Amino acid sequence: MPIVRSSEATTHEIHGARFVSYATPLTGSKELCAWRGEIPAGTKAPAHTVNREEIFHLLVGELIVTLDGRTERISAGDTLIINPGATLAVENPTGHTALSWVTTSIGLEAELADGSRISPPWAN
């Protein structure tokens, strides 16, 4: 039975946020990846366009998210559905770290505004 203990999760950092990776092909997943996102107070992540659907569930805190040009404030318990080809930007305007849980299919890539591409290890 594949179990990923919290002590075995892999942590990655990029653009001021932390991604704690639990489900990937390296941990036994065949189709999905899942991670906890930690978005510190004051973080403003760059806009990026994704090639896979993501389900972004906010566990703790509040964020300002811009999805395809529409900006909304989301709170703990809210879920954002990010379709392939959508452009997302996330900002934490509060004084506390926000925590999220994100799930996507293996092979997620993101393209930044400057055209650079990221294949995040927590989603591949």
What is the CATH C level class, in words? Mainly Beta
CATH architecture: Sandwich
What is the name of the CATH superfamily? Answer: Jelly Rolls
Helical residue percent band? under 10%
What does the largest sheet look like? 6 strands, antiparallel
What is the string of helix and strand elements? Answer: EEEEEEEEEEEE
Question: What Rg is obtained from the alpha carbons, in whole angstroms?
Answer: 14 Å
Query: Ranges with pLDDT <50 over ≥5 residues?
Result: none
CATH topology-level fold name: Jelly Rolls
Q: How many domains?
A: 1
Shape: globular
Our measurement of the CA-to-CA distance between the termini, rounded to an integer number of angstroms, reads 21 Å
Instruction: Quote the beta fraction.
Output: over 45%
Summed up, the helix count is: 0
| Number of E-type strands | 12
Mean pLDDT reading: 96
For the largest beta sheet, what order do the strands appear in spatially? 1-2-3-10-5-8
The oligomeric state is single chain
| Helix and strand composition category | mainly beta
